[in-house]
Design a protein that fits this description.
The chain has ten helices and 13 strands. By secondary structure, the chain is of the alpha/beta class. It has one domain: Alpha-Beta Complex (Spore Coat Polysaccharide Biosynthesis Protein SpsA, Chain A), CATH 3.90.550.10. The radius of gyration is 19 Å and the shape is globular. The structure holds uridine 5'-triphosphate. Residues 10-17, 27, 56, 105, 108-111, 113-114, 131, 133, 254 line the site of uridine 5'-triphosphate.
Length: 281
């Protein structure tokens, strides 16, 4: 694939696992040290070549747009105080060539529905999806960039990771062809006994625009939600979709344990904080 320009961030979920904080703070604005989760996700998208970031939000999540907007009073105050480094930091959250588009998901009808809300902005080109609560860190190219390098015209790529067999019920699980990476089928949250493997899909996708037509045909599944997995299952029958075992470490920041692990990791590589976590992370 020549280039990936657009990345969708579905951030309209309720974030119930972080209540009461998420009663007023969007889950994606929770910080790992001093940077909100959404910043790590956006950096990964820009690293992959994206110049259009599409946030699927809800009416409680204005803070995400505020965060990427310029903050005139703050910037002027920092300027007057001569705090150049801080000023450069708040002005440099996004490179100048990158623009943000915000789309509202009126009701939380599932991840598939959230992605479908981005249809008109994406149009007819391949696009990426990043779920910011899966925070992936690495020294080399970001996970999404690795996936773009493998994507073929019209095809798809899903990031996968081996998980303990007992945990298959938390993930979409894929079955790949013998000796290759092409996905044969995918099951949403199977019990360990029914799981075709322990290869779990994590929050990174590269998909063709065809997925929107398939999402429109997808009927609500478990919990009345429109599942992205169901539409991807239909896509598998039409075009190659690869399972990409990404390089990097994933922190599941959608739950408290993952958030603590991510925080310990970043503290352990911070010169001013590493003494606090010596031997823990
Ligand atoms: P989760 O399953 O993590 O749900 O959604 P959640 O609401 O964010 O968190 P919990 O489980 O209540 O704590 C996976 C991703 O899909 C998005 C979420 O924002 C998250 O990035 N999503 C989910 C939507 O955008 N809309 C939906 O209707 C559902």
């Amino acid at each position: 694939m020549a280039r990936l320009r657009k990345v969708v961030f579905p951030v309209a979920g309720l974030g119930t696992r972080f209540l009461p904080a998420t009663k007023v703070v969007a889950k994606e604005m929770l910080p790992v040290l001093d940077r909100p989760l959404i910043q790590y996700a956006v950096d990964e998208a820009v690293d992959a070549g994206a110049d259009t970031l599409v946030f699927v939000t809800n009416r409680y999540k204005h803070s995400i747009a505020d965060y990427f907007d310029s903050a005139y009073e703050l910037e002027e105050t920092l300027e007057r105080a001569g705090k150049r480094e801080l000023l450069a930091m708040v002005q440099g959250l996004l490179p100048p060539h990158v623009r943000c588009v915000y789309v509202t998901q009126e009701q939380a009808l599932g991840l598939g529905h959230a992605v479908l809300c981005a249809k008109t902005v994406i149009g007819d080109e391949p696009f990426g999806i990043i779920l910011p609560d899966d925070l992936i860190v690495n020294d080399g190219p970001g996970a999404l960039r690795q996936m773009v390098a493998r994507a073929t015209d019209g095809g798809g790529v899903l990031a996968v990771e081996e998980v303990p067999h007992a945990e298959t019920g938390k993930y979409g699980i894929v079955d790949v062809e013998a000796g290759g990476d092409r996905i044969r089928h995918m099951v949403e949250k199977p019990k360990p006994a029914d799981a075709p493997s322990n290869l779990a899909v994590v929050g990174r996708y590269v998909l063709p625009a065809r997925i929107f037509e398939l999402l429109e045909k997808t009927t609500p599944g478990a919990g009345g939600e429109i599942q992205l997995t169901d539409a991807i299952a239909a896509l598998l029958a039409e075009t190659p979709v690869l399972a990409h075992r990404f390089e990097g470490t994933r922190f599941d920041c959608g739950n408290k344990a993952g958030m603590v692990r991510a925080t310990l990791h970043f503290a352990s590589i911070d010169p001013e904080l590493r003494h606090l976590v010596g031997g823990i992370a």
